[in-house]
Specification:
The complex is a heterodimer of chains A (751) and B (177). Chain A is α/β, with parallel strands linked by helices and 751 residues long. Helix content of chain A is 30%, strand content 15%. Chain B has six helices and ten strands. Chain B has one domain: Alpha-Beta Plaits (2-Layer Sandwich). The longest helix of chain B is centred in the N-terminal third of the chain and has 10 residues. Helix content of chain B is 20%, strand content 27%. The two termini of chain B are 25 Å apart. Classes of the chains: A alpha/beta (751), B alpha+beta (177). Chain A: Pfam families: Molybdop_Fe4S4 (PF04879), Molybdopterin (PF00384), Molydop_binding (PF01568).
Chain lengths: 751, 177
């Protein structure tokens, strides 16, 4: 199908200058090690600059060490930082590869159409690119109102554009971090405890006696301080219980691994709750004092016995009882990890609710070794006018749907962009900052239709990610090691802040996100919202209000503050008012009942794979963050492609060999663009396959990532939407193997 | 003085941070490494065990690589650390063949390269880069002759194994099990 906006791979830039600059680096080496004989440099000969990492969302504070030639040699964790305690994860250590990746976006790009109708990107000056986007923003504002300009954002740079859009008059924003990731637990924990678990989660793993991981694969997700604390918990002899159909790294380090049949987790949790209640193992004092709805819960789980759950989950009743007793024995020092990427089957808010209820029965809230009361620092707001009122925003797309959504839903923003879907409030243009939507989101056809429908797309990124191919204007962003950014402030045991400042000047013609947002703001007459020449002024002003300064923070990177909200844990028998309807922890959710949802979670049977199909389970590898690191020279060196894990029984059945390349096809006939290698391993169940997310890049300009492995998201066309908060459940997809290149068949399928 | 390293397989998650930290610290070219991760799976589903090991040169007491080196480029310094002097190395590869741990590789500059236990850091009282970066704190380095060193303390109350003991190389990487 030909659309107004063809997808352009930046590799097809038809401009001599671009091609030359790519070649200039030569084919040998990746730029990091140009002077080959240089050995290690003494730390004394390096200058450290404070930063916090942007390779993932954990945002560990670090020092970027720059040598006398102005090159960043290494990045090391800040010892005073509670996110990393001086130890970065492989991605943070390899973060320097993000800066020195020679495939980076180097100049602004503008889409052009040749006489023959083909399209390409032309290199442009910043002035031209900024004017083009600002003009379009003005035009949309006049024609449709500013609300029709939507924003997809992620991470620190996304915040700058969020500010720009708010100043311009739009709240039409969404980020994959909510509906495609941790949204369910936000709604679930808020409705149960009247509080969120935050990011980093306020899990007291360090001091726990029992850590329960339900599909959470700590160690493969390198959520740094949690990995560190799990390691401490192992040293302390804590019991670790891991529920996973895959023998994950965490499962291997666990005292109990429950190899559950996929999609049945709620049944297991309800059976645990049954055992705790009917064997009187729960914390009676805590439940009586702080909870609401115990009697209804008790009645509700009456028949949800371990024997009942066995038939559903494949977990032996004895194992269910034994692990419930382990938890009870360790209570209240139990962490039921609330999970992070929870959007699996569309009843994920209910699963997270079940986890929250389980925590409450164990008294595992606000107690040492469970979930602590985190405290953060509120960063003073730099003087600016109020944001203008908006006539509508992301809430209005939902209508009566997803009443408990607390942030914009990405798929709704896509749908609101497609005229045939007749949304009352339609979006006409997009800004995309820091998220590679085609690989991040399920249901790629929906994305493609929406991208073809909108009038205009501007993308800001550091790399020629696939999403840039849909853009009319591409802004090359400076990497986190080359820019100032907002002060990091995340709640933790000790309130703290961290500074990010440039270690080196931005390479090529890239610019910091704040600068790009400000330039657009100035062109839109929004100077009062961007009343500074350099973002360092904003940071210094804010730091001074906090009793420090940019000068001091440049020397220390991280500053801790005394707690003001009281102790980390609840006192014994302390009166406590929860921020819920009843003022108590709601085992029975009044809010859910009011909205017509199950007030107590129920197990729902989900579809199972048809014959010759296998459930697709996907996850993380410790050295990669989504699709954004796959081309990083340091990190691709550790893992350059993904594989599809199949149980030996399945491999035998299909005659699949280790390392054999196959294409995957899902229940809807979608086929992966690239083949993926088979990994035959006992670590996965026979009814499922597993892939690491983020691979299968289709842009040739990503020289290390192109065509390496396959994209799990291409196989996720069935989205099971959570009616409570709009989460996009992605684990209801089933794949089969194609041993022959489907290229020819594929054409037929499209026709 | 006898430098050694203990690697706690009960805690290692196989993340590869040690590998990246080594590469950036020691300017190891991309595509090569001085340390690496081994993942070993035993059993059948669901009775499984999995071990991750962060491996590198074993800095053997009885090191075949040093014995077979025709030029003396491979040598042992104080503390038992096995090193290669690049300008003396002719790249013949005999040491690579002789190592039962596959710990050496041909550097693109023509010489053989391997783990140095970050001797340039150790001399200043620092840990090797891999030890200091490890998020699970599963690597312990120090002097076996000092009972209070991190490695001695790590080995004190734990079971351990070495790799390829049958090779008789007296390796100095201890894997806590």
């Amino acid at each position: 199908m030909k659309t107004r906006r063809d997808f352009i791979k930046i590799s097809t830039v038809g401009v001599g200058a671009a091609a030359i600059s790519y070649k200039a680096l030569g084919s040998k080496g990746f730029g990091l090690f140009e002077s080959k004989l240089e050995g290690p440099v003494s730390d004394e000969d390096l200058t450290p600059y404070p930063t916090y990492c942007e390779v993932c969302f954990w945002k560990c504070a670090a020092w970027a060490y720059v040598d006398k030639k102005g090159r960043i040699r290494k990045v090391l964790g800040n010892k005073n930082d509670p996110h990393c305690n001086g130890r970065l994860c492989p991605r943070g250590t390899g973060g320097v590869g993000m800066t020195y990746d020679e495939d980076r976006l180097k100049t602004p790009l503008i889409r052009e159409t040749r006489n023959d109708g083909t399209q390409y990107f032309r290199e442009a000056s910043w002035d031209e690119a900024l004017n083009k986007v600002a003009d379009k923003m003005k035009e949309v504002k006049e024609k449709h109102g500013p609300e029709a300009f939507g924003l997809f954002n992620h991470g620190t740079p996304g915040g700058q554009f969020h500010h720009l859009l708010r100043a311009y008059g739009s709240e039409s924003n969404a980020e994959p971090a909510f509906a495609n990731c941790r949204g369910p637990r936000m709604s679930a924990y808020f409705s149960t405890f009247g509080a969120y678990v935050g990011s980093p989660e306020s899990t007291d793993i360090r001091d726990t006696k029992c850590l329960v991981l339900i599909g959470s694969h700590i160690g493969e997700n390198m959520h740094n301080s949690q990995v560190q604390e799990m390691s401490e918990a192992i040293d302390n002899g804590a019991t670790i219980i891991t529920v996973d159909p895959r023998f994950s790294t965490a499962a291997a380090h666990s005292s109990f691994w429950l190899p559950i049949k996929p999609a049945t987790d709620i049944a297991l949790i309800m059976a645990w709750i049954h055992v705790l209640i009917y064997e009187e193992l729960f914390d009676k004092d805590f439940v009586e004092r702080y909870t609401f709805g115990f009697d209804q819960l008790k009645e509700h789980v009456k028949n949800m016995t371990p024997e009942w759950a066995y038939g559903i989950t494949d977990i032996e009743p004895e194992q269910i009882r034994r692990t419930a007793k382990e938890m009870a024995g360790a209570a209240p020092a139990v962490v039921i990890h609330p999970g992070r990427h929870l959007v699996w089957y569309g009843d994920d808010t209910q699963r997270a609710r079940a986890m929250a209820i389980l925590s409450a029965l164990l008294g595992a809230w606000g107690k040492r070794g469970s979930l602590y009361f985190a405290e953060g620092i509120k960063i003073p707001e730099y003087p600016q006018p109020h944001y203008p009122e908006t006539k509508w925003g992301w809430r209005d797309w939902n209508g009566d749907k997803y009443p408990l959504a607390t942030m914009g839903i990405t798929t709704e923003l896509l749908k609101a962009s497609i005229p045939r879907l007749n949304y009352e409030h339609q979006v006409k243009a997009w800004l995309i900052a820091g998220t590679n939507l085609p690989l991040a989101m399920p249901d790629k056809p929906l994305f493609k239709e929406a991208a073809a429908a909108v009038e205009f797309i501007a993308v800001m990124d550091t790399m020629p990610m696939e999403v840039t191919g849909y853009a009319d204007v591409v802004f090359p962003e400076a990497t986190y090691l080359e820019r100032y950014d907002v002060i990091r402030s995340a709640a933790n045991r000790e309130p703290n802040i961290a500074l990010r400042m440039p270690a080196i000047e931005p390479k090529y013609d890239s610019k910091p996100g704040w600068w790009i947002a400000k330039q657009l703001g100035e062109r839109l007459g929004l100077h009062d919202y961007f009343n500074y020449d350099d973002y360092a002024e904003v940071i210094d002003w804010q730091l001074k209000k906090l009793g420090t300064s940019l000068e001091e923070m440049k020397k220390i990177g991280v500053k801790k503050f005394p707690r003001k909200s009281g102790p980390l844990y609840m006192g014994e028998g302390e009166d406590f008012e929860f921020n819920t309807n009843t003022g108590k922890i709601e085992l029975y959710s009044v809010d859910f009942a009011d909205h017509g949802f199950d007030p107590i979670p129920k197990y729902t049977k989900h579809p199972e794979p048809p014959a010759n199909f296998y459930r697709l389970i996907y996850g993380r590898a410790p050295m990669h963050t989504f699709s954004r690191t796959i081309n990083n020279p340091n990190l691709s060196d550790l893992m350059s492609e993904n594989s599809v894990w199949v149980n030996p029984k399945v491999a035998d059945l299909w005659g699949l060999k280790k390392g054999q390349e196959v294409w995957l096809k899902n229940q809807d006939g979608a086929i992966t663009t690239f083949p993926v290698k088979i990994r035959v391993t006992e670590r996965i169940r026979w009814d499922s396959v597993y892939m690491v997310h983020g691979f299968g890049h289709a842009n040739k300009k990503l020289s290390r990532a192109f065509g390496r492995g396959a994209a799990d998201t291409e196989m996720i066309t069935n989205v099971m939407v959570d009616p409570i908060m709009g989460g996009t459940g992605m684990r209801g997809n089933f794949i089969t193997f194609l041993k022959e290149d489907p290229a020819l068949n594929r054409k037929e399928a499209k026709a | 003085m006898r430098y050694a390293m203990a690697i706690d397989t009960k805690k290692c998650v196989g993340c590869g941070d040690c590998v990246v930290a080594c590469q950036t610290e020691n300017n190891v070219p991309h595509g090569y490494c001085r340390d690496w991760i081994v993942e070993r799976v035993d059993g059948t589903y669901p009775s499984l065990s999995l071990e991750f090991r962060s491996e590198r040169c074993n800095h053997c007491d009885n090191s075949p690589c040093v014995r077979c080196c025709p030029t003396g480029a491979s040598h042992i310094v104080d503390g038992g650390v096995v090193l290669v002097t690049p300008h003396k190395c002719i790249g013949c590869g005999a040491c690579i063949e002789s190592c039962p741990y596959d710990a050496r590789y041909p550097h693109p500059e023509g010489h053989v390269d391997k783990c140095t236990f970050c001797i340039h850091r150790v001399e200043k009282g620092q840990n090797p880069a891999c030890v200091d970066v490890c998020p699970t704190n599963c690597l312990h380095f120090g002097d076996l002759d000092d009972p209070n060193s991190a490695v001695s303390l790590a080995l004190k109350d734990r079971k351990w194994k070495v790799l390829a003991p049958e090779a008789g190389t007296k390796p100095q990487l201890y894997f806590l099990t």
